[in-house]
Amino acid sequence: MAESKKEIYDILPRGKYPTTILAIENQPFEKIINDVYDSGIQFPMIAKPDIGLRGSAVKKINNIEDLKDYHARANFDFLVQQLIPFHREIGIFYVRFPNESIGRITGIVSKEFVSVKGNGKSTVRELVLQNPRYAMQLSQIEREQPTKMDIVLPLDEQLELIPYGNHARGAKFLDASHLISDKLNKVIDEICREIPDFYFGRLDIMFDSFSDLEQGKNFMLVEVNGASSEPTHIYDPKHSIFFAWKELLRHNNYMFKISLANKKRGANFLSHRDGMAQYRIHLEQSRKIINF
Fold it and tell me: Any idea of the CA torsion for 84, 70, 29, 20, to the nearest 10 degrees?
């Protein structure tokens, strides 16, 4: 609920995620920009809260002025991260019981980013308003693309408006569980077994070629989410609420059994006090970034 993304990145297999640095709240900007240069991160880059909330306050940083503005507005710790050079994104849910040597993929979601296709007549703003789903994101799109809203796109030209695979930022989630294969399961299982004590969660992955992904090459982890993550393929518009309930129950049952198994191995359950402390951090972080 209130996990540090940087602490999670630090336990992931090297080379499987983008170069990332942590900027502490109220840290001098000179320190941040020096860390950026020392790390080799180049523009454009991504800035996002270290403790996130469904994609809130994630922003593409195109130049030093963008980074300076983000730093000035951020009253929270945030990450600066090299922009991932791939264009497709999926979320893969993974489960492995502690007594098992091999885990399994239990669901895949593909993510359709917010984009419009030109007709040679309408402005980008008009194209956005023609789509009820995108119209709800108009103010956010205007912030992301302030110079492009009045442009008339040529016929069939595609323009990506929000480059993040977040449901709350307008991305459409589609159930791609039919893509589960033995090859992909082997790739994902090998990654997850390199993460200490990781038995349950979702890997958000960017790639260009699914064939490459199945071969374990040319992809990168965006994030890894643990016990608080959801099997997001349930959000495919074609699915009913009953399908969602069934999938949530299935995954909660996995988590329950894994928790019991870990308890028998010596792990402790989260106490009520610690749980409430995490919840208070979550509420405070939500207050800070929800309208960033």
Answer: -20
Q: What does DSSP assign to residue 267?
A: P
Sequence letter at residue 230:
E
Query: Can you tell me which residue has the tokens 């997850």?
Result: 192
Centre a 10 Å sphere on the Cβ of residue 5 and count the other Cβ atoms it contains: 21
Amino acid present at 87: H
| Integer Cα distance of 175 and 110 in angstroms | 6
> How far is 160 from 169, CA to CA, in rounded Å?
13
Query: Would you tell me the crossing angle of helices 29-39 and 64-73 to the nearest 10 degrees?
Result: 130
Write the CB contacts of 150 (distance below 8 Å, at least 6 apart in sequence).
123, 124, 125
Containing H/E element for 213? Answer: helix 210-214
- pTM of the predicted model as reported, rounded to 2 decimal places: 0.89
Distance CA 42, CA 149 (A): 27
57-89 residue pLDDT tens: 788 899 999 999 999 998 889 999 999 999 999
Within 13 Å, how many C-alpha atoms sit on residue 271's CB side? 3
